[in-house]
Each structure stands twice: as C-alpha cells, then as structure tokens.
C-alpha cells in the first residue's frame, strides 16, 4: 500500500517514513502542498497523511482542490493544531480522519488500514476469499487453515488484489502501488510476484486478463 506523506518538518517526516515502512506500507514523502498536488496528479497512492500547516499551499487548500477534482483518496490529517476549529475545517474540507502531533505510529498505521478498508467497501479487519484469509494488521496470511509465508512485496500485492476483488489492476497500477520513488522496478517484477503467489497459494487464485492485468474474481 503506497502512502503519500505531506509534512514540512524534516525530523517528523523522516520518522513517519521509517515508521510506515516498518508497518508494511510503501511511503513517499513531500514537503509542501504544491509538490503533493503534483505527486497526486502523476502517481497512484492508496492514501495520504497530510499536515495542515504547509508551505506553498496549505493542507486545507490541497484538500479542497483534491475533492473539487472528485478524488476519493483517503486522507488522514496530521496536525499540531489541536483547536477544534482547525480539526473541523480539515474534516469539512474533505479529510477522512485526523491525529494530533505528536502521534503514536502504531495508531497511525491502524487508522490508515481502517481508512483503506472503508474506501474498499470492506470494514472487516480480515480480508477473506474462499479459503484465503489475510490479516493486514498482523501481516499474516492463511490458506486452507495453514499459515503461508510471503515476502513483503508478495504480501502487498496480494493485499492490493484482495482490496480490489472483482477489478482488473494493470501492471502499471500495481507497480505504482507497490514501489515508492527511487526504487528500481524490474520489467517482469509483477509477473514474478504473481507466479510466486500462485505457487504458494493456489494457481487459480489470481486471474490474468490478457493485455490488461490481473484480478481476483469475486465468488
């Protein structure tokens, strides 16, 4: 799950970047509202963690611009402003949740997972598909009652496909969701991960739509 961090405080940004990586996310980080807007127009993200007090374009203005463009991207507001008026303004401008700095990274990760579940129309913390069960919080996968060891990238790919059950995701979409900036992507990386998932779980689990991409079909 690729997350955009929008935070101008260097120390906090570094901490969020490291903490979300440890929690299994693929975070990228920008330091002002204009850079965030440009990133959101050119890349695919699963959610954003957004500071309100940003240079060049405020978090409130960025939210308004996003929602005016009909973006449904889940946005968690992270701000030092604990006055209720600022929180209300952020939520009314299109924010989906908020936390006040300093924040607990485990709670931040949990709130992001909840936002992603709700945006996918699945409020349950456990994703299930036939004999497959995926627990995003514990980063655990079970198939037919047995635990299955997956690499971090395999887990992320499976999670994306399960969140979008019934929808075909292109290779470009999956690469954008799984790989942050600056990380080289092999031309056949997605195909290799799909092959490993089929071998570890079930050959028929992930369906190839030729010339388009991959999907897990609804049951």
What is the CATH class name of the largest domain?
Answer: Alpha Beta
Main sheet record: 5 strands, parallel
CATH hierarchy: architecture of the largest domain: 3-Layer(aba) Sandwich
- CATH fold descriptor of the largest domain: Rossmann fold
- Unreliable residue stretches: none
- From the spread of the alpha carbons, the general shape counts as globular
In what order do the strands lie side by side in the largest sheet?
A: 2-1-3-4-5
In terms of quaternary structure, the protein is single chain
Termini, distance in Å? 24 Å
The CATH superfamily of the largest domain appears as: Response regulator
Strand percentage lies at 15-25%
Q: Count the strands?
A: 12
Domain module count: 2
Mean pLDDT: 90
* Radius of gyration over C-alpha positions, nearest whole angstrom: 18 Å
Q: Mind sketching the topology for me?
A:
Layout: E1 2-6, H1 10-22, E2 26-30, H2 33-42, E3 47-50, H3 59-68, E4 75-79, H4 84-92, E5 97-100, H5 105-119, E6 126-129, E7 132-135, E8 140-143, E9 146-147, H6 152-163, E10 169-170, H7 171-178, H8 189-200, E11 207-209, E12 213-215
Parallel strand pairs: 1-2, 1-3, 3-4, 4-5
Antiparallel strand pairs: 6-7, 7-8, 8-9, 10-12, 11-12
